Amino acid sequence: MKRNVAALALCDWSKKQVSRRNVARHFMHVRPGSDVFQMLNDSIITEMPAVEQQIRAAAGRPIDFKPLVQMMSCNIFCDYLCSVRFDQNDPEYQRLVRDFDEVFWDINQGYAMDFIEWLRVFRLGTLKHLRKLSSRIRKFICERIVNHHKETIDYDNPRDFVDMLLRRMNSQEGDHERISETTALYELEDFLGGHSAVGNIIMQTVTQLSLDDRASLPYTESTMYEALRVCSSPIVPHVASRDSTIGGYDISKDTLVFINNYELNTSPQLWTDPATFNPGRFVKNGAMVKPPHFLPFSTGKRSCMGSKMLSNITFLTIGCLLQKFDISLPDCPKNSRMVKEHLVTGCLALPVDSFSLVFKERTHT
Ligand code: HEM
């Protein structure tokens, strides 16, 4: 079975995939003390005042926080990977963020037809709509990001991830093969689209913290992991590239294999009281502990490339917010419905119209 070679996560392993992962590695491996760590921190810090300004404008009234978070997250990604930020009032930018979020929501539903080609006939209408969103995203990225880079690039001094992709289009580097323009654009879209995952996990974590009077910085990390535990679903399939065995089972070449993250994260054999949302399960003697069967980003050579970016952005943004605001979830019909239907499900994505939150300026430290 040959799978869509455009999407980074859903394609077969190949020299091209090695080349694609290699271009992104520098920007994704955000280690404390590295130049990219500082760059990412700067992008986050630059974005926070706009969020705080809008929170303050609400003056303690409930706000729909998700659009704000998604716009913030997208601008952090654009600044960090493409050296460009957009005005939050720019209607084209607002639409880009909504389009990405809608695509992300759809991917997270884990429809069987996403993996089984012939079932697609049952979703032709939705697929047409998703194609429309994707081509609008492509147009924005070309017109507002890539064209300017093409005109101003200095191949010897790449400024950012976009320049690195343009350089890889023009030359083979070491063992890594050249990539086509289409491949480069898909790759850029895939990574920029990562902002939707980040925005959604920030929403999940902030909402859980708002329900918990222990909300604090150290507690944020375990809350994020607990949110990942309850949200993870088996959305990324693999295809066996040769005959093999797993745990004593014969797997023949081309078999579709899923790592069942849902089972790994909710099995009573692996977790105490798995149905309860309990960030404390990741903390032992004041330190974070992750059991070996907790693999929200998978493992091995196809593992998630965005996990470091995700945790850096999540902790820093939530940390900045908690320093300044007490966050609570007001009791209203919409929030009650959202808590019931969307807070603890095997789905990371929250609907576009999500929780309303109240932010009150902190009067204590
Ligand atoms: C809550 C957030 C996220 C979760 C739970 C998550 C989880 C995963 C998982 C389970 C995989 C599949 C690994 C496998 O095939 O074995 C994956 C792949 C991938 N993720 Fe993430 N991810 C998240 C956010 C991100 C972000 C923010 C980015 C980019 C900035 C990203 C980039 C990627 C890429 C490029 C791949 C494909 C890697 C490959 O197949 O070579 N992810 N992710």
TrEMBL record:
Heme binds at C304. Its cofactor is heme. Keywords: Heme, Iron, Metal-binding, Monooxygenase, Oxidoreductase. This is Cytochrome P450 307a1. The keyword Metal-binding applies. It comes from Amphibalanus amphitrite. One of its GO terms (molecular function) is iron ion binding. The lineage of its organism: Eukaryota, Metazoa, Ecdysozoa, Arthropoda, Crustacea. It comes from the Eukaryota.
